[in-house]
Amino acid sequence: MKSLRVGGVEVTALTDVEGAFFGLGQIFPGVQAKQWKPYMERYPFAFADASTLYGRVGAYLLRLPGGRTLLVDTGIGSAALGQGGGLMDDLAAAGVGPEDVDTVFLTNLHGDHIGWALTAQGEPTFPEARYVTQAVEWEASESYIGGALRHLDALGILDLLDGEEPLSDELTAIPTPGHTPGHSSLLVGSGSDGLIISGDVIVHPAQVTEPTWNIAFAMDKEATAYTREMFLEWVEADGLTVAAGHIPGTGFGRVARDEDGRRAWVSLDETGDGDVPTEEEVRHGGGAG
Fold first, then answer.
1. pLDDT tens column, 77-101
2. Is 31 in a helix, a strand, or coil?
3. Domain boundaries 3-284, CATH class
4. Within 13 Å of residue 207, how many CA atoms lie on the same side as its CB?
5. CA–CA separation, 188 and 259 (whole Å)
6. How many Cβ atoms are within 10 Å of 174's Cβ, its own excluded?
7. CB-count exposure of residue 41 (10 Å: 0-12, 13-18, 19+)
8. 2 near 10, Cβ under 8 Å?
9. Which of 126, 133, 129 is nearest to 103 (CA)?
10. DSSP 49-77
11. Per-domain residue ranges for the chain?
């Protein structure tokens, strides 16, 4: 289990499920098989074999000053992809019980982000938490989750955001629409010392170089590609660390330029726990992959 510190915030990567999920042609229907070859060589950890993606359904635990505990996304749940999801075990290993979480931030309301939000009986898994997402996402979600989370509203524990909004002195919700109408990311800190939890803006490291490559589940393909390009420009320019919940391992990485001057993903999984690395440390700490 890996953690990074961003100022006074500790960000810990959690995993619900990791494995060979989809055929490449199924999850990236617009990408030809031959186009994957250079990325298989660069990012072997993100492929199960020559035709299958190796991915992760992850979440992030944030410990804030003052004792606050926030969870970003809740995985697929207890019946994740035919197997039991491990998110609750990871939380327990981090020393956190369901009652310790005071905020659940949902980047989007697709099923792989809300699985542990409620118990099998329809009650909040995290009984002391406020559940937070964008108002646009909540209003649009009927088409893809139906009434699965309506009990949160009935209980009065749902907080809906209106675009870019602070959640605390250290955290800011950033709209990143396209994958879903109200998709948002969570910025921790700012500038080269900052980290952004990106939800589904980046689900595979190849998309850092190929921002127009959309997965099948992106609801608005054009908007998703535009958001991804703008996102990549921003995180590269500001030197932000990215926490990408579907990239295997921890999903911690940086955007840097490769030997051909193209953007590439630089995994931080080989570094030890500690502070978010500087740009100098990223440049000299290993290649993209």
1. 986 555 668 999 999 999 999 999 9
2. coil
3. alpha beta
4. 26
5. 30
6. 18
7. exposed
8. no
9. 129
10. ETTEEEEEEEEEEEE-GGG-EEEE---S-
11. 3-284
In whole angstroms, give the CA distance from residue 78 to residue 146: 19
- Give the tokens for residue 144: 């893809």
Type of residue found at 42: R
The structure's pTM equals 0.93
Quickly count: other Cβ atoms within 10 Å of residue 273's Cβ. Answer: 11
DSSP-derived pairing of the beta strands 263-267 and 274-275: unpaired
Per DSSP bridges, beta strands 165-166 and 158-161 are unpaired
d(Cα 167, Cα 176) in Å, to the nearest integer?
A: 16
Query: Which stretches of the chain score pLDDT less than 70?
Result: 79-84, 270-289
Q: Which of 9, 52, 13, 56 is nearest to 33 (CA)?
A: 52
The string of pLDDT tens digits covering residues 61-75 is 999 999 999 999 999
How many Å apart are CA 108 and CA 118, to the nearest integer? 15
